[in-house]
Amino acid sequence: MEVNLHANATTTPKTRSYIQRSKRSVAELAIELGVSETTIRRWRGRGSVADRSHTPKTLTTSLSPLEQALVCELRKDLQLPLDDITEVMRRCANPKLSRSAIHRCLKRHDLSRRSKAEKPSIGRFEQAGVGFIHMDLKHLPALERRKSYAFVAIDHATRYVYLEIHLKRDAETAAGFLERFLAHFPYPVRTILTDNGSEFTDRFAVDMKDKPLNKPSGKHIFDKLCAKRGIDHRLTRAYRPQTNGLVERFNRRIVDAIGREPKRGNAHRLFASHADRDAFLNRFVYDYNRTRLKCLEYLAPLQALSNLPGPNTFAGGGGLRRDRSPKKRLCRGLQVSVRAPKCRSQASSSTAANIMDHLKFVALDAEDLEVVSAHLQDANVRVADVLWRPQEKRLIVALDRFDWLAAESGEQSLKRCRSALRFDRVAGLKCRNVDPKAKESVLNLLAVDFLPVDGPGGVVQLIFDDDVVLRLDVECLECELVDIGEAWTVNEKPVRTEIAVKA
Prior knowledge:
By secondary structure, the protein is α+β, with helices and mostly antiparallel strands. Helix content is about 30%, strand content about 20%.
């Protein structure tokens, strides 16, 4: 039990109770407990052991009831500080009032602290799907007596980032950046949000005739390009960068990343050259697009871009529906190849065969790797085309993959294509039943699978016929399959076989 005693108390509740129960005289108790006889008489005459209030029963104040009411109203209604209240009361009510008297009045009425002004409610950004792009310009520190600018675009729904570095920040450069971004981004762009910089708009141009006040004229090259592409170009309010906070926060990430980079230039330079700095920023964006983010439920932006719910894919709510049949997995790979950067077609023809002639696919989880495995079944690999780079933690395999999608779609001509399979973040490589000296030996790839072990890490197995296996210990799954040559016609179709994966 919490006991609050007076600061100068010489007895405790237990001692006070003992005094009240004792039959001994006042003098004897005073000697026994080491307190005064007055203290004994006080507690013997009370019925409780708690301290009484020491607040004065009658308050002596120089303020009349009317003056106290005026002081309280000045604080509650006008939120005046103490000095202002004192000045008002002295001029209008009583010139003899002291500052301390007014302060004591406010204390008695619990008004000694002014109430904090209510903050306006923080608005939430509108729920935007893929194609709502935040765009901004980041000034980079001068290097070699030249300034550079980073143009950044980030998709609101998937957090996918596209970045370019230029030496100019004019309207033509911004329009060129937008053109290249639209060619790079795999989905239609509906809205672009930028600030009011002159590279994006002429909203605040003061030397333009017949322009609406504080509104863009529509003649800016960036606005013209947006209108041509059917894009709604929105502008933030003046001096409100938080409206475009998504890209502003990413710009801060760039600053933080540069600050953590060890110095390697001359004098006080952080980077040795523009090329060194540009390579660092491009690598930073590359890693960011492959980093699992909490706001995406721990998906990477590339994964989110490839697994959109709704009409963009075969998804029905949370992500892609995983079908185990090889033919449907191939069709799913084709769907992603048309709509997403991690598997985007480079061909202009709309036929399935031409789309698959230039396949590009990135797998960041086990289910994406199943699609890669379906495309690579019965691919031919020479031993000499397996390149292991331990210092880079990278494995590259050049192979001739069979175009299963064209074959399953009923095309008469059967095709193979020269492709490259790359794995990053590979900590170790083990081989079984492989003779490194037999460089011209040809292996038949049956499957590629991923066995998770600890967190994002695990084991990737490339399983070939004749019990040949390449086992990769990976820190996390980062795989890319890309076609690097034109397709050619073959005479026969391989026989697909189902295998049991051994852990």
